[in-house]
Every structure is written in structure tokens, then in C-alpha cells.
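Service request form, structural biology core

Requester: graduate student, group of Dr. S.
Request type: structure prediction, single chain
Budget code: on file
Notes: please return the result as C-alpha cells.

Sequence provided:
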Amino acid sequence: MTTGLRIDSNVFVRLALKSEPLPAEGAPDLPAVEEEIEYVHGYGFLVPGLDIALRGLAIGDAFRITLDAEQAHGPYDDDLVFDVDRSEFPNVDALGPGDEVWADGLEAEPVTVRVLEVRAESLLVDANHPWAGRSVCYTARVLALRDATDSEISEAAEHFDSAFTDEDDEVPEEVPLVRLRRKDSPL
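Core staff response, request fulfilled:
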């Protein structure tokens, strides 16, 4: 570890992080998530507001910040709630409200969609991040910092670049991938 190193671009960071979505009117309460994360700073691994807030912190530093939806997971988008024909889902009869599937077709990369309702000919799904439209309180403590290796930087840059291309992300094998089209859209 380098003495005096602070969080900045190309620094490998290990954090103890607690993320707590705040209550939102008409939405269910969601549990906080506590985790230890490792990443190379500056490559879009974190939500924008958290990325900015961490810059300049050193090992042992701790902080707490509440970010509004814009700086966290973005506003809730009603257009990302829509019907998809049942034929688009493998094992459709096994799906129910609250289940999640990976979907391809709305953006350049696969996204997780939640089933809201099972209907006779379609499923109502929500492609919003579960915390979209909510302020989020983050509590973090910097556990370790070091200069990232060239291969770590390259991998982080590749991940960042793939978020803006047509390259597919790796989808867990146990999660079905569907080609997502709105029920009312042409093939």
C-alpha cells in the first residue's frame, strides 16, 4: 500500500459499503445492503454521486451521504413498465410477481426485469432499477487502497466501454434470457 494514497482514477479501492434506499411514497420498503466491494475507481462501477463523493478519501476515512434519485439510480421511468407477450419467456408458467429475468432488446446490454403481473396473454414487467426514483443513503469506510495494475485498469476500462456498445454482458446461466419486445411493437 502506498502511504498517502487517496481515491482517484486508476486506484484500486476496497470499501465497506452500506446502501440504504429511503422510503418512497406508494412504494414498498426495501432493505439496506451491506457489502465489501473492490473496484478500480473512475470507470462507472459506482453510481455517479457516490463516485464523486469518494474522491480524495484515504484508508480509514468514513463518511455518510444521501444522494437524490438523479445521482443514485435515476428517476423512476413509467415507460419502462410494459406488457411482453407470454411467448417471449421460457418457462412462463413458472414465473410470478416478483420474479426476475434477464432481458435483451431494450438497451445495448442485458437488463434485469421484474415481473409485476402475470396476465392471460402477457406479463407486465418493470425494467427500472429496483431503487429508481428513490434517494439512497450510503455509509462507507475505506478499507484499502493501492495503485491498480495495468490489467485491472484494462479490465475496468473494457467493462466501462461495454456499457456503451452492443456487446453482451455475461448473464448467469440459471437466469433465463428473453428477447424483450413490447407487446404492441412490431416484430
